[in-house]
């Protein structure tokens, strides 16, 4: 712009943006790959005029101006095209001539993300890099009075139960009388949480499923994956692999027409049914699949028209109270599979979790409670929901567990924790901490996207454009030009790597605690934290 | 690590047999305390098998409070063993007024009560006495049960035995369990001393219980008044046994299936697959992780030993028809039953439960892979 030119309220400089592109003229070959692959068109070919003052050599000649042109990369400052820091430009550049750098202060862009009166929406997670789970240490190390176990050589039983577990007296009685006992699945305590077919690209989804199948069939690890709300591809519904799948039903009921119709043709029961009432990333808000991503395949599986945005309502519309909402829904889902499939609700972590839990304790069919904390991720939500809504997972899980322990039902309703596990890469440590706080299992989403497919998202607002179908890694895009970047087999391979490494790390935590025969659910005496208030709140040891 | 010794014999024995066996294993305990459990009593108690016996340690004031309380309930003293001790105890043994072993006549209005009710009342009485003692520190109550005597004290086992003159002829039993403590806590609370007792079930253990907290939480939330205490992480072993037999109606063979269930492949191959899977799942909170060797005594006068899943503690059983012993170490067994056929000595491994029944004719070994005979 010209110095005297008009300035609009949203006229920003590059400095005002969160990400600044550093471009090196000397290295650039002007191949154009960066501009071609930038998902948000943040950079374009720039023509720069350069003036050089040539001082006179002789006395008589006057100094003169020399004008030259050069071509290069120009970063746009229009908020609609602001760089998201994905660094795809850097990745494709043959000469490493370009890289996004994070600004050194809070950007001004955030005040302009609402042009046209549209509040900012994005994918990703809460923009807060801190993690309380990382502060928890394992302090009860077996030394001399009891030998530490050998993580490499001893047998370990790293399994958990998903399903309503009866009290032992009742179970024996029911068995003796040939009565019905609720279905219980013995599964691996690390689950892949609900990410829908639609939110994820077909390649990503297939890669995850293949990895899960391999873990089960070749490595004997009963890993389970939840579909998220978006239905399930018809072939999977009719395959033997369905038993590794947890079908999710949520307020939009997307895909359930297809699922219900497939029931008579199912070779196997699904592992379980998860009823989603809430999601940690955007509590109190429904799922959201933006129109860009609703292509023919997605539309068919979900049973909707193509190219329309699919916002699920925040609550299940046909229900009006917790008794209705939970009890009836759980019961109908049980009936659909002849009472052979565990059904459990998933809620966002909230101060009202205990009310939900107490209600479930009185419902003989409730198979578990999944609680998703504020650090959970999502494919699309309002920025404000992601950043400001929700409850931390640790205290919520602890409260739920202690409450169950108070009424003596701590073995009866498994609590599944989600949201922020492995946020900073410490997945096994975070998972173990939650288990010792009382969780029976943990669910991951973002972590597996990062580890198995190289998702670029971060807690400092990097990338996070999953909602608009332009995922540069092809993870959350429905555009074949993008998702073909993702190799299905490699995703599957990475899923297997992640679980195997997790398994080793979990043993490395449990063995020194002297635990191997059963998962140390609620072993709070092993936990310590250097924050007195947190220690008191979580009822664990305060150690400095 | 503590040392354990238990013996079951057709003829009543003096507890000194067990204490001497502990003494030969003295390298394994530090003489910081001793616990004794006697059952199937001989001597004068042989005649009054049904009379509940109160065992504990009392101050003069505590004894007066006890008498008032018991009299109010309607209990009459039937027989008592007065252990009067010299004024100055040996080094390391605290000064006490009275070690009480007293058999009572049931209150008249308890006549005709169903046995379960009777047993609940006995438990309730013991817990009340314990709580009264906790208030003022003037009574410590170990057991209140027919045909059972318990003695616990801080100090070296043999010096305590001499001090209390445990070789007296009135003190005889056919089942004796004894533990020599290896102190791992600085302040010794007698309630943390093995063996532990609840409603006719008693166990003692060595090792640490790494799964203690979740197990304690689970037992405490069973709504059963006796599942309290837990000054020691080993007390839960006794309560799990009580829970398995009394609450679930299972036999002692099932105990091991609860504390160290089979892993998946073995479970699948087991004839009682369904039952055991159910047990494993529903009693998941009672799974121990060891390292522990548990020796226990049941109301049917059987004695048993089990190990943790990895068998991380020593333990051996041996003897001859009529007399068998369970010991942490072979030398303990040698001291107590030297004339046995040593080739028959058996060290229970990770799947085994070694049981000697009341007939004391053989050591029965149950493997977890065997079919389970449901006793109820
Ligand atoms: S970092 Fe990503 S968004 Fe930014 S210019 Fe490069 S490719 Fe475009
Ligand atoms: S890489 Fe894809 S999935 Fe990851 S934050 Fe970016 S758009 Fe979302």
What layout of secondary structure does this protein have?
The complex is a heterodimer of chains A (544) and B (376).
Chain A: E1 19-23, H1 33-37, E2 43-54, E3 64-75, H2 88-92, E4 98-102, E5 121-124, H3 132-135, E6 137-138, E7 160-163, H4 168-176, E8 184-187, E9 190-192, H5 202-217, E10 225-226, H6 234-237, E11 245-249, H7 256-262, E12 272-276, E13 288-289, H8 296-302, E14 310-311, H9 322-336, E15 343-348, H10 353-361, E16 369-372, E17 378-382, H11 383-388, H12 393-407, E18 415-418, H13 427-437, E19 441-444, H14 446-453, H15 480-483, H16 488-510, E20 527-529, H17 532-538, E21 541-542
Helix pairs in contact in A: 5-16, 10-12, 13-16, 14-16
Chain B: E1 3-13, H1 16-24, E2 34-41, E3 52-58, H2 60-73, E4 76-83, E5 98-105, H3 115-136, E6 139-146, E7 148-153, H4 157-164, E8 173-180, E9 196-198, E10 201-207, H5 212-220, H6 235-247, H7 252-259, H8 264-269, H9 273-282, E11 292-297, E12 303-307, E13 316-320, E14 323-327, H10 330-336, E15 352-356, E16 364-367
Helix pairs in contact in B: 1-10, 6-7
Bound molecules: iron/sulfur cluster (2 copies).
Summarize the model shown.
The complex is a heterodimer of chains A (about 550) and B (about 375). With about 550 residues, chain A is an alpha/beta fold.
Explain this structure.
The complex is a heterodimer of chains A (544) and B (376). With 544 residues, chain A is α/β, with parallel strands linked by helices. Chain A has 2 domains: 101 residues, 2-Layer Sandwich (Alpha-Beta Plaits), CATH 3.30.70; 399 residues, TIM Barrel (Alpha-Beta Barrel), CATH 3.20.20. Helix content of chain A is 28%, strand content 17%. Chain A has 17 helices and 21 strands. In chain A, the strands form 7 sheets. Chain A has an 8-stranded parallel sheet with strand order 9-19-18-16-15-12-11-10. In chain A, strands 6-20-21 form a 3-stranded mixed sheet, with helices on one face. Chain A has a two-stranded antiparallel sheet with strand order 1-4. The longest helix of chain A has 23 residues. Chain A starts with 18 loop residues before the first strand and ends with a strand. The model of chain A has no long low-confidence stretch (mean pLDDT 93). In chain B, helix 1 runs antiparallel to helix 10 and helix 6 crosses helix 7. Helix content of chain B is 28%, strand content 28%. Chain B is of the alpha+beta class. The mean pLDDT of chain B is 91. Chain B is globular and about 60 Å long. Chain B contains 10 helices and 16 strands. Chain B has a single domain, classed as 4-Layer Sandwich (Glutamine Phosphoribosylpyrophosphate, subunit 1, domain 1). The relative contact order of chain B is 0.17. At the A-B interface, helix 4 and helix 12 of A face helix 5 and helix 9 of B. The structure holds iron/sulfur cluster (SF4) (2 copies). The site of one iron/sulfur cluster has 15 residues of chain A, from strand 5.
